[in-house]
From TrEMBL, chain A:
Organism: Micromonospora mirobrigensis
Taxonomic placement: Bacteria, Bacillati, Actinomycetota, Actinomycetes, Micromonosporales
Protein name: Nucleoside ABC transporter membrane protein
InterPro entries documented for this protein: ABC_transp_permease
Subcellular compartments: Cell membrane
Listed GO MF terms: transmembrane transporter activity
Primary localisation category: membrane
TrEMBL record, chain B:
Subcellular location: Cell membrane
Transmembrane segments: 67-92, 149-167, 174-194, 200-219, 231-251, 284-302, 332-352, 358-376, 383-400, 412-434
Coiled coil: none
Keywords, in A-Z order: Cell membrane, Membrane, Transmembrane, Transmembrane helix
Highest taxon above the source species: Bacteria
Span list, region Disordered: 1-54
Transmembrane helix keyword on record: yes
Record-given protein name: Nucleoside ABC transporter membrane protein
Chief localization: membrane
Membrane topology label: Multi-pass membrane protein
Pfam families, per database record: BPD_transp_2
Biased composition (Basic and acidic residues): 11-26
Organism: Micromonospora mirobrigensis
Length: 426, 452
């Protein structure tokens, strides 16, 4: 991020004097905590706020009086903010910030759940956790595709197009052959096709990578929309009735309370997504390939001097990104829905946001994707309990959070140094 | 075209490697349906190589220039290539035509005839819907296609200018979509909520839209200037914030149409609507005039004003501009504000013109994203943007007819537009496919890349 910053003003964001970034963050958190204590506490009712550990109202539950909970968690958030403001050692920063934010969310939930109408004033945590993961899945695949591309220095704005093409070819070939596995492979190849175009034009023809990404998104929308209307709409039975992966229950793990039913009774994509995060994380930071990828993304000239084939590595990584995103697209059409026009609907851009929010690391991207998934799930839940908060504003949350992150208000994010710069061997 | 001091023969020598690639790529492209795409190309794009100059040397020079990689040639060839790919898509998505290919070795004529019929009919309808229908009788019918084309062109000029202006200032404004969204909201609200006399009302509604867009452009501008936050990321995010804001405000009391249960706002008063130019039966409205005016103004601003000079200086090299005493931060903010203002006006066009007269979730369609394509196709020059918007407007208008007469999905137009811009963005590719000479004068910019 800082590479294109205007130096004359970028200096002002360097931590200086009393108002370090930690202190500023602390002040914001303190204000949020006080707001939660006062406002949420006042608006919450004396009803019990029930957080059930199941999918329904019944079963074991965590209960707290609404007003008490809202005020209590608000105070915790405010305390965390005050601690940061007082100048806590740096190593505590992330932990305290996390505690503060979680407390703020809990305070908010105590208000919302206790204020919900009778019979709906409970929150089924299993549903929430499962929904969070399901909604986060395309984001996880998409942001991993972003990590693979951008760590090697190719900006990937085409995630949306890769997901869409994956979803489409998964549905099309899955339907024609009647096999989920063929569909899965076809989806990966579909995503890789968009990647191939991105790679060729960005690496071979030196087209601006952001421009190319935007145009490829439109191309994917156009091509899939066109073929959808021509083929799938005219003969849905033949072209748009892909078989679906069934849920796989993992023995033993599925019986863990809360996490078991939410996570270990999912479909292949859930396991694949989490596995990929782990694999890419290890590969990126522990293997030779990872070291080379990162060096190509940071300083291609130096990498080239040491004998790394910069362009070949970039081609390979961009194609791999396409495969990953293509599978992410299939997590829609081979598990949940049949294909519809433009069905990704901006998820690719949230994945891009998750990538940036997660600071270009696989685990960071996972956490960001889960956060965005949670915001999405929360919007659905609040809609269902008839909350007074408009769901549209909750839906804005991921985007606003990303703007704050990029502007350096929550923490510095920095892209790989050579991200987006074509490499010309000289 | 003709230049003094002619260098006869090939002006520039190609490196050997590039010529080699050119051959291999030329072989890879199928050339069968090239003839039928030729027919449907808009009339503005036709240039006959057979044109004879008064003297052989001049004619030769003309031919040399024609087959060089200059802006016009590359654009025409890019359109041709895109239509070629479009033709392939039409063929492979038509099961009946595809069936004839199963016995192509036995009776190749069947496959070729069927392909020719379906493709030529589609593109003929594209032409008839965009420019002129020879069968049309009467003024309204004859002017219909042009009227439709201009109606679709007007908003694209504004968003195209918005993106192009930001490009010249070194910023990539992907947020034209969001800025147009905020513009359309404010324009519509001013259009139905304020009781004002005609004329004044229209002006106020337009200004409201422009201000809304300017505000939405100001945010990424100030963030870029103050914190260095990349405008690409912020404008993408603000696009979605704007979309959700639109979907929220439509259903608020006082905005939503009280007679409707779905998400649609009250209609804009007739006093705030842009007047129609050719009678009530034709949709073309004064928005296109405002668009031409805006193009002229932006051309003046860029090339003749102090601000334009500073803007271009910052775009070319911010460090040098700062050394020369230009405030880079101020310029960034101003560029984004003016850019947003233009995009906001584009949004106004969507609700004050004849396209719609009330807010719906999809009221501005894709004009912001199309604006990016228009700006690139117009080589980020104001008058180029106007021409590019005209081409895109024509494709849109023709696409409607193609959909209703030939049953070819309107999405094909999106494909064509994206492909045209892909080929434009990589002139080296077009050059290689057609083995064009390197142009002497025209410098084709391939890369604007600056990274995040």
């Amino acid at each position: 991020m800082s590479t294109t910053a205007v130096p004359e003003v970028a200096v002002t964001t360097v931590d200086e004097g009393f108002w370090t970034r930690a202190r500023k963050t602390g002040a914001v958190l303190l204000a949020l905590g006080l707001l939660a204590t006062g406002l949420f506490g006042a608006l919450a009712t004396g009803e019990q706020a029930r957080f059930t550990l199941s999918e329904t109202e019944g079963g074991a539950a965590l209960e707290i009086n609404g007003t008490v909970g809202a005020i209590l968690f608000g105070i915790i958030a405010a305390a965390a903010g005050a601690a940061l403001l007082a100048g806590l050692p740096k190593r505590w920063f992330t932990l305290v910030l996390g505690v503060g934010l979680v407390a703020f969310v809990l305070s908010f939930l105590c208000w919302q759940v206790s204020a919900a109408p009778e019979g709906r004033n409970f929150m089924p945590l299993v549903n929430i956790v499962r929904g969070t993961f399901i909604l986060a899945l395309p984001l996880i695949f998409g942001s991993l595709a972003g990590v693979l591309c951008e760590r090697s220095g190719v900006v990937n704005v085409a995630i949306e197009g890769q997901l869409l093409m994956g979803a489409f070819s998964g549905a099309l070939f899955g339907s024609i052959t009647g096999s989920v596995w063929v569909g899965l492979v076809a989806a990966a190849i579909g995503g890789a096709f968009i990647s191939l175009l991105l790679a060729v034009f960005a690496i071979r023809y030196l087209v601006d990578q952001v421009v190319m990404g935007i145009v490829l998104n439109l191309l994917a929308v156009g091509v899939t929309g066109f073929l959808y209307e021509r083929l799938m709409q005219t003969d849905a039975q033949k072209y748009n009735s892909a078989p679906r992966f069934s849920n796989w229950e993992i023995p033993l793990l599925k019986d863990i309370p809360l996490i078991g039913p939410a996570l270990f009774r999912g479909n292949i994509f859930l396991y694949l997504g989490l596995l990929l995060v782990l694999v890419i994380h290890i590969a990126l930071f522990r293997t030779r390939w990872g070291l080379r990828t990162r060096s190509v993304g940071e300083h291609p000239t130096a990498a080239d001097t040491l004998g790394v084939k910069v362009l070949r590595l970039r081609y390979r990584n961009v194609l791999m990104a396409g495969l990953v995103a293509g599978v992410g697209g299939a997590s829609y059409t081979l598990a949940l829905y049949s294909f519809t026009k433009n069905m990704i609907g901006g998820k690719g851009f949230i994945a891009l946001a998750a990538l940036i929010f997660g600071r270009w690391s696989p685990t960071g991207a996972l956490l960001a994707a889960l956060f965005f998934g949670f915001a999405d799930q929360l919007a659905t839940y609040l809609g269902a309990i008839g909350s007074s908060i408009p769901s549209q504003f909750l839906a804005m949350l991921p985007y606003l959070a990303t703007i704050l992150a990029v502007a350096g208000l929550v923490g510095r994010v920095r892209a790989p140094a050579a991200d987006g710069k074509p490499y010309i061997k000289g | 075209m003709s230049k003094p001091n002619p260098v006869s023969g090939s002006p520039d020598k190609e490196p050997a490697t590039e010529a080699q690639e050119a051959r291999s790529e030329a072989r890879a492209t199928p050339s069968a349906p090239a003839a039928d795409t030729e027919r449907a190309v808009p009339a503005t794009a036709t240039k006959q190589p057979a044109a004879e100059g008064p003297r052989p040397t001049l004619g030769r020079l003309f031919l040399d220039n024609l087959w060089a990689a200059n802006t016009v040639t590359v654009t025409v060839l890019a359109v041709l290539l895109a239509m070629l790919v479009g033709a392939v898509l039409i063929i492979v998505s038509d099961p009946e035509v595809l069936a004839t290919y199963s016995y192509i070795t036995a009776r190749p004529a069947d496959a070729l005839n069927a392909s020719w019929t379906v493709v030529s009919e589609a593109y003929a309808n594209l032409f008839k819907g965009a420019i002129f229908d020879p069968d049309a009788v009467g003024f309204t019918a004859a002017m219909g296609p042009i009227s439709e084309t201009l109606t679709y062109t007007a908003p694209l000029v504004f968003t195209g200018l918005a993106v192009a202006l930001a490009f010249r200032g070194g910023l990539f404004n992907i947020g034209a979509q969001g800025q147009a969204t905020i513009g359309v909201i404010l324009s519509a609200v001013a259009g139905f909520a304020l009781p004002l006399p005609p004329g004044v009302h229209l002006l106020v509604a337009l200004i409201a839209g422009a201000l809304g867009g300017a505000l939405w452009g100001f945010v990424p501008g100030i963030l870029k200037a103050r914190t260095g936050a990349h405008e690409v990321i912020n404008t993408i995010m603000l696009n979605y914030v704007a979309v959700y804001f639109l979907s929220w405000i439509i259903i608020q009391a006082g905005v939503q149409n009280p007679n409707r249960s779905d998400a649609i706002s009250k209609p804009v008063d007739s006093s705030a609507q842009l007047p129609r130019l050719l009678g009530d039966n034709l949709r073309v409205h004064a928005g296109i005039l405002v668009a031409v005016l805006a193009t002229w103004f932006i051309a003046w601003l860029l090339n003749r004003s102090t601000l334009g000079f500073e803007l271009r200086a910052v775009g070319e090299n911010p460090d040098a501009a700062r050394t020369a005493g230009i405030s880079v931060t101020k310029t960034y903010v101003l560029v984004m504000v003016i850019s947003g203002l233009l995009a906001g006006l584009g949004g106004s066009n969507m609700v004050l013109g004849s396209t719609a007269n009330a807010l719906t979730p999809l009221v501005i369609a894709q004009i912001g994203f199309d604006g990016i394509l228009v700006a690139l196709l117009g080589r980020v020059k104001p008058w180029g943007v106007l021409l590019a918007a005209l081409l895109f407007g024509a494709l849109q208008a023709g696409g409607n007819r193609m959909q209703s007469y030939s049953g070819i999905s309107l999405e094909l137009v999106t494909v064509l537009q994206a492909l045209i811009v892909i080929f434009i963005a990589a002139p080296a590719l077009v050059k290689a496919i057609f083995q064009l000479r390197a142009a002497r004068a025209a410098r084709l910019q391939t890369s604007l890349a600056k990274g995040w």
